[in-house]
Amino acid sequence: MPTFRTSPGMRDVLAPDSARFRHFTTVFADVVEAAGYGQVIPPLLEDVGVFARIGDATDVVAKEMYDFVDKGERHVALRPEQTASVCRAFVQHRPAVPWKAWYSGPNFRYEKPQRGRYRQFDQVGIEVLGVDDPYLDAEVITLGWEFFDRLGLRGVTLVLNSLGEPADRGRYVEALRQHFEAHADELSDVSRETLARNPLRVLDSKRAQDAPAIAAAPRIGEFWSVAAAAHFATVQRALDAAGVPYTLDPLLVRGLDYYRRTTFEFQAASLESAQNAVGGGGRYDGLVEDLGGPPTPGIGFALGVDRTLIACDDEGAFPPPPVAVDAFVVDTAGGADAHAITTELRRAGLRVDRAFEGRSMKSQMKSADRSGARLAVIVGTDEATAGTAVVRPLRSDAAQTTVARAELLSTVQEALS
Ligand code: AMP
Questions:
Q1: Which of 137, 153, 313, 371 lies most in the core, judged by the most C-beta atoms within 10 Å?
Q2: What's the mean per-residue pLDDT of the chain?
Q3: 288 lies in the same domain as 390
Q4: How far is the CA of 309 from the centre of ligand 1 (A)?
Q5: Residues 69 and 139 in one domain
């Protein structure tokens, strides 16, 4: 028989990590729903054209897309991110603006798998469509910051930049192209290739060979229009006022093509530099229009769940939530009493487990212990005949009691309270 394992870059998430994963999303939902964001659940699969707007020159589109022609001859792709899907949903449904949406779920990119980089990875994120106001940029960034704080993650740095208006960005890209072409023989082969496709992305290079040419490159700030500079100054003032610390980095251009004006990244100190971004986002005022909608400003961020949890592990933050049951039912009289008792206690809202297959008292008590339960409810043949059960504390020295079945629920509830 063939045996199967997960494909490269794909993972199973088992308990208790899966509970932590779920709790992560719950905490995120708490933070953003308290700020007026509503959940949107886009499909995993879209027309490939939805994602083309991320940029032909980006790796996400050029190399990493999980796309195929389906049985109806449609060229579709598993989503590599959710911002484009959210914008497509906006164009399709035309909700009232401002539209404040949050999402969570898996994305797919055919990347080279390594720690913190997978082919299926989860993100949570928010997007706001229809508002052009620097205080919104500040709100979005602040919510990301507060979320990391709620997780208990301390070693996060917020890095901020502005790419200017599209025209500023265009002039900057041209200036970069001229600069890097003049220094082409100093660049690594990889960066020379990147230069031909997208001069901005050369700034992302972490290769030592590229460092001098990057250090000497023009900076985006020299190209900001008055309006772009004013917008960015207000964002910074608002973050200062909210006590959200940040570092300015003129080299932060982010991977996706659609960003303009405010861009930002959350970096975790504990992760290696190539994978240190736990999240990022920015303004993308042209994306809705590119997808066939009216001109609509947009801003948002996506946080990588897998990578953020690795950063939490490194810091010992956000441990898996306890998954222990309240009580464990041990039945050595055939199993029917355990069925009746677990059903009764669960219906009363308690977390209850049991053993099966008529195992020995010793083996069932071992399972009870492993379950983390605070109480064992024990039914042997004597108790089964007498219509009673023994309630035995497992985590304290308190004495066990034998109670009539009619009093079992209240006894257990009292012992747990
Ligand atoms: P992006 O959508 O590329 O802006 O990425 C936003 C965040 O998603 C990053 O900061 C990472 O935390 C996470 N992320 C992106 N790609 C991957 C991947 N292949 N594996 C794990 N996390 C990822």
A1: 137
A2: 94
A3: no
A4: 13
A5: yes
Domain membership flag for residue 203: no
Please report, for the domain that includes residue 412, its CATH number. Answer: 3.40.50.800
> What pLDDT shows up at residue 256?
66
| Residue 212 within any structural domain of the chain | no
pLDDT on residue 239 = 98
Judge whether 349 lies within some domain: yes
Let me know if residue 209 belongs to a domain: no
Work out the widest C-alpha separation in the chain, in whole angstroms.
93
Centre of ligand 1 from the C-alpha of residue 109, in Å: 9
How many angstroms separate the alpha carbon of residue 82 from the centre of ligand 1? 11
Verify that 159 and 294 share a domain, yes or no. yes
Interatomic CA distance for residues 5 and 301, integer angstroms: 33
Lowest mean pLDDT among 94-108, 150-164, 260-274, 356-370: 260-274
Atom of ligand 1 nearest to the CA of 81: 2
Give the integer Cα–Cα distance in Å for 71 and 360. Answer: 55
- Which residue of 24, 115, 117 sits with most ligand 1 atoms within 8 Å of its CB, as the best mutation to test the pocket? 117
Q: State the residue range of the domain holding 58.
A: 17-165+224-315
Please provide the DSSP assignment of 122-171 as one string: EEEEEEEES---HHHHHHHHHHHHHHHHHHT---EEEEEEE--SHHHHHH
Lowest mean pLDDT among 32-41, 92-101, 203-212, 343-352: 203-212
pTM over 0.85: yes
Which DSSP category does 275 fall into? G
Ligand 1 pocket (Cβ < 6 Å) reads 81, 109, 111, 116-118, 121, 123, 255, 277-280, 302, 304, 306-307
